[in-house]
UniProtKB/TrEMBL annotation:
It holds the Pfam family LysM. This is Uncharacterized protein, YkwD family. Residues 91-134 form the LysM domain. Transmembrane segments: none annotated. It comes from Anaerobranca gottschalkii DSM 13577. InterPro entries: CAP_dom, CAP_domain_YkwD-like, CAP_sf, LysM, LysM_dom_sf, Peptidoglycan-bd-like, PGBD-like_sf, PGBDSf. SMART domains: LysM (SM00257). Residues 143-165 are annotated as: Disordered.
Length: 292
């Protein structure tokens, strides 16, 4: 579900609090913008009644705001961010089950970093029913058009900053893992690139030496392997999977009690995910968890 909204600065740029019982043009503009963002506040009549209040509560809940039914600075800023559009090609999208930033970037022909910047995201985690501003490639190029002297250098930086398929899959799996943890009231895990390197080596080792087990003929146990590469931890664990896709590997891990316990272990704080294509399953997955 997506729509193309217009912004109403008349009430967004004031310090006025809109709440139950408020009336006037500010309420009417609020109602219109909520409707354009996919929320139904009832009649656009400028009266802040029960329907409008319930819509504001739903908007606040879905956008991780203070759920108080009052449209103050925090809620206005959230509305502003969702309506901040400089191109008719931009859309406001409602996150559906199974969506990831990578899928959305491909679907709307944009980039993950552009979506994150437009929505003030600090990580790759998104939630069902969350509203996201999806900027177009044209909008990004217009906003960031380099001068002729800067262009070669910026093009070189852009090419080095593009995510590889391996990195995309690893971040996609991190997103799925952290969605499960958040759903169960746990803190999300932090991706540690040093552990990622070790996890990739383990996946590659299983492909090259044709085995599927926690104990490596080359590196020993997962704990020995992590220590040999200088990874420190108080507690640690490892999940292995072989599957043709990230989502299928994640589903299989969550359906296995032991692997699920690692993903939902409250003592783990960091993770390294190493994904290597190849082997009898198509793709080999290693998740290394540590608690610090």
């Amino acid at each position: 579900m997506f729509s193309i909204p217009t912004i109403s600065l008349a009430y967004l740029d004031t310090n006025e609090l809109l709440r139950f019982g408020s009336v006037g043009e500010g309420v009417q503009l609020l109602q219109r913008d909520l409707a354009q963002l996919g929320f139904n506040p009832g009649p656009i009549d400028g009266i802040f009644g029960n329907l409008t209040r319930n819509t504001v509560l739903r908007f606040q809940q879905q956008n991780n705001l203070l759920v108080d039914g009052i449209v103050g600075r925090q809620t206005k800023n959230a509305i502003r961010n969702l309506l901040k559009i400089n191109s008719n090609n931009s859309v406001v999208y409602t996150v559906q089950r199974g969506d990831t930033l990578f899928f959305l970037a491909q679907r709307f022909n944009t980039t993950v970093s552009a979506i994150m910047e437009a929505n003030g995201l600090s990580n790759h985690i998104i939630y069902i029913n969350q509203k996201l501003l999806i900027p177009s490639i044209n909008e990004i190029s217009q906003q960031q058009q380099p001068s002729q002297t800067q262009q070669p250098q910026q093009q070189q930086q852009s090419s080095t900053q593009q995510l590889t398929r391996q990195q995309q899959m690893e971040l996609e799996m991190l997103e799925l893992v952290n969605q499960e943890r958040i759903r169960h009231g746990l803190r999300p895990l932090i991706m540690d690139q040093n552990i990622v390197m070790v996890a990739r080596l383990k996946s590659q080792d299983m492909i090259v030496n044709r085995y599927f087990a926690h104990h490596s003929p080359v590196y020993g146990s997962p704990f020995d392997m992590m220590r040999s590469f200088g990874i420190t931890f108080r507690t640690a664990g490892e999940n292995l999977a072989g599957s043709p896709s990230v989502i299928r590997a994640h589903t299989n891990l969550m359906n296995s009690p032991g692997h699920r316990a690692n993903i939902l272990n409250p003592n783990f704080t960091h993770i390294g995910i190493g994904i290597v294509e190849g082997g009898p399953y198509g793709i080999m997955f290693t998740q290394m968890f540590v608690g610090r």
